[in-house]
Amino acid sequence: MVADVHTTSGGHLRLVLEDTSGTFPCLVLKDRQFAEQARELLCDEVIAVEGTISNDGGDDGILFVDALYFPDVPRTYSPSTADRHVQAALISDLHVGSEEFLAEAWSRFTDWLHSPDAEAVEYLLIAGDMVEGIGVYPDQDEELEIEDIYDQYRQFSEHLKEVPGDMNIVMIPGNHDAVRLAEPQPAFDEELRDIMAAHDATISANPSTVTVEGVSILMYHGVSLDEIIAELPDASYDRPAAAMAHLLKKRHLAPQYGGMTRIAPEDRDHLVVDEVPDIFHAGHVHKFGYGSYHNVLTVNSSCWQAQTSFQESVNLEPDVGYAPIVDLQTLNLTYGEFA
C-alpha cells in the first residue's frame, strides 16, 4: 500500500510502501520508462514493485524500483455479451426537485422510448441522483422547485411513469439522494421504495454490479471521480471515461482514503473491484463521455439538469440530456440527444 509519495528536488519520485510488516522507502528514477505511470500513484492504493535494495540511504536502505505493477484489468480481458439483440439505456443525475430539472428533455427521451426506434431498448439503468436533495451544497434551497425531500421522490416517481411499463429499470443512489453520504451507500429504504414503487424497479446499493442478459455492469454513482480529476494531471471533467479508466486500473472505486470521498467503516471493502465488469457505468460529474479500457466499456452518462449557480461558480458546464444506448450483444454504444 502506498503510504506516501512525493517528488524529490532532483525530479525523482520517492515512495513509502507499507504492508503488515512495516514500511519501506522506494525510489523511482525520473528517467525510468514507467516514471510517468508512477506519477499516477495515489496514497493508499495497492501496487507491487520489483527492484534493487541499496544500503546507501542508511537504516535498512532504499529500494530502487525496476518494475511497477498495478492490480489493473488484464489486457486480454474478453467481455461477455448477450446472446440476442437487446439494448440498455444508461443514464444518471435527473435531479428532480431542482428548478433546473429539464422536464421537457426528459419527456422527449421517454417519448422516444415508446417509439419504434427504441424497440430493442428493454433496460434502463440509472446511476444515482434521482432527486436534487436538500442542503447538498451552499444556498441550494434558493434553487429548489420542491422543498420537501419526499415530495421530490413523489415527483420523480411521476416522471418514471413516463417510461414504458414493460421496461426493466435498475436504480442506485447518489450523493444527492436520501441515503447516507458515506460509501458504500445502502439502497433506498422501504419508505422511499414505496414512493417509487409504481414501476417496480430493481433497487440496489452504490456501487453495485448487476448482470443484464449475461453482461456484467458495474454501476457506481462516481463521487470519487472528483478526487481522481483533482489529483491526476491527465484527468479532466471533459474526459470522464479516462478518469473512470484510472479506477479500473487501480481496481478500486475510491483508492485514496481520507480525502474528499467519504468512506464508511465496514467489515470488508465494498469499493474494491474484485471482478472485472463488462461495462462500467457512472455519473455524478454531469459530463457525457465513453471509451474502452482493456475491452471494458466505460460510460459516464451526463445529466438532466441545466447549470446551477454552484456549478457556474466552479466553472462546470454540464452536458445535458444525453442518453447512451448500449447494444448488449455487441457492446457497441450509440446515444440520443434530447435537450
Topology:
Elements (H helix, E strand, L loop, with lengths): L1 E6 L5 E7 L2 E7 L6 H4 L9 E7 L7 E8 L17 E5 L11 H11 L7 E7 L21 H12 L7 E5 L17 H6 L6 E2 L4 E5 L2 E6 L3 H8 L8 H11 L28 E4 L5 E6 L2 E6 L7 H5 L8 E6 L5 E5 L2
Parallel strand pairs: 3-5, 6-7, 7-8, 8-9, 11-12, 12-14
Antiparallel strand pairs: 1-2, 2-3, 4-5, 6-15, 10-11, 13-14, 15-16
Give descriptors for this structure:
single chain; 339 residues; alpha/beta; six-stranded mixed β-sheet; 7 helices; 27% strand; globular
Structure description:
A hairpin with a 5-residue loop joins strand 1 and strand 2 (13-19). The strands form 3 sheets. The protein has a 6-stranded mixed β-sheet, with no helix packed on it. Strands 1-2-3-5-4 form a 5-stranded mixed β-sheet. The longest helix has 12 residues, at 149-160. The chain has helices at 35-38, 103-113, 149-160, 190-195, 224-231, 240-250, 309-313; strands spanning 2-7, 13-19, 22-28, 48-54, 62-69, 87-91, 121-127, 168-172, 202-203, 208-212, 215-220, 279-282, 288-293, 296-301, 322-327, 333-337. The model has no long low-confidence stretch (mean pLDDT 94). It has 339 residues and is α/β, with parallel strands linked by helices.
- Strand order across the largest sheet: 9-8-7-6-15-16
What's the helix count?
A: 7
CA gyration radius, whole angstroms: 22 Å
What ranges have pLDDT less than 50 throughout 5 or more consecutive residues? none
Average predicted confidence as pLDDT = 94
